[in-house]
């Protein structure tokens, strides 16, 4: 659909076909801006990827993303419309998406009904099932990589870390997932993994939709495993025989799993059953995405909400975090995720700051229903839980993304260059 706001802009053509609009955000590899596609009169989002100064050029991750995306066409996978080099940068043209699932989850004005959650989960799993059918792992499933269009359709995006799996002689780098969504086999350093890593991450997203905050917020890989085991019990070797042979395996103190119902008091029995299957420790026994889609959770009442009827988040940039929390959300409050005892300490912000941060990354925002108690009470029902990266809050930089050596890069670039048919000159 054409965006009239773009019509008012001076005609800043980008590679003839696109009229440049506002900047939408800055990603890992460069800025993303809004544009008008004069060929189709559609609004698009163009990801401008800085190419290296050296001839070696195009970032391998970007090339990989292009190659995969060009092959993937599904209603629940973002469409790559075009790719072209321009003024020394690589431009990827995607369909424009209004929002993402993280914005939905964080918007305290939005109440998600069980049918809404089912709808978001169904779209997520449908997109993932399509990728897995094509032998492609996403590998970076998290709510801000699930974009939402104006028609309410959710689409998997940011395949920068995805890779075709199944080929022999391929060892995967395991440090690719955002930690909170990382499967235990990755945390234990497995070199060979499969579609189960995406299922685990989708389980984390399911949990996050129910709880309205990231489920397992580990501050390190060790802590992440601690949080997983506190939630689901320490796995016994009989439950996951291969575990003890994994490269980074360390023995954890045995803890029993609390009842799953106590973690998700608001979930239906069917939802709980599906969650338990998505969080199965042994990846060989973990439910597949296709099986998850066929699970009775999706056929039982309530039926998933029609995507066009799903609640929409506030427009980007609007302050939604300090909006008073509606009383009906309080009863949906999830439990505090269990942490190792040393993590239970609370970090207080200075008086007058906007909220109280917990060391495990949970920030509690004051809500209008709070009656004066700002001093760090543990009565969470009076606060609005918000999730933020505490490192970001205190100004430290996020950990660097994994890189590959220049030998690998030039080798892969040559390989991908041969596979990709790029046009040499700008359009
Ligand atoms: P990252 O590399 O950190 O995952 P991206 O480069 O994918 O980030 O995106 C940066 C920002 O640009 C996002 O936060 C989002 O706001 C915006 N964005 C990315 N893709 C789209 C799109 N298809 N439609 C609209 N906005 C987008």
From TrEMBL:
Disordered: annotated segments: 393-427
Pfam families according to UniProt: Pkinase
Protein name per Swiss-Prot or TrEMBL: Protein kinase domain-containing protein
UniProt key word Transferase: yes
Alphabetized UniProt keyword annotations: ATP-binding, Kinase, Nucleotide-binding, Phosphoprotein, Serine/threonine-protein kinase, Transferase
Every Protein kinase domain range: 18-298
Source organism of the structure: Amborella trichopoda
Binding residue positions for ATP: 24-32, 47-48
Catalysed reactions, semicolon-separated: [DNA-directed RNA polymerase] + ATP = phospho-[DNA-directed RNA polymerase] + ADP + H(+); L-threonyl-[protein] + ATP = O-phospho-L-threonyl-[protein] + ADP + H(+); L-seryl-[protein] + ATP = O-phospho-L-seryl-[protein] + ADP + H(+)
UniProt xrefs under PROSITE patterns: PROTEIN_KINASE_ATP, PROTEIN_KINASE_DOM, PROTEIN_KINASE_ST
Gene Ontology CC entries for this record: cytoplasm; nucleus; transcription factor TFIIK complex
Residues the record marks as active site: 140 (proton acceptor)
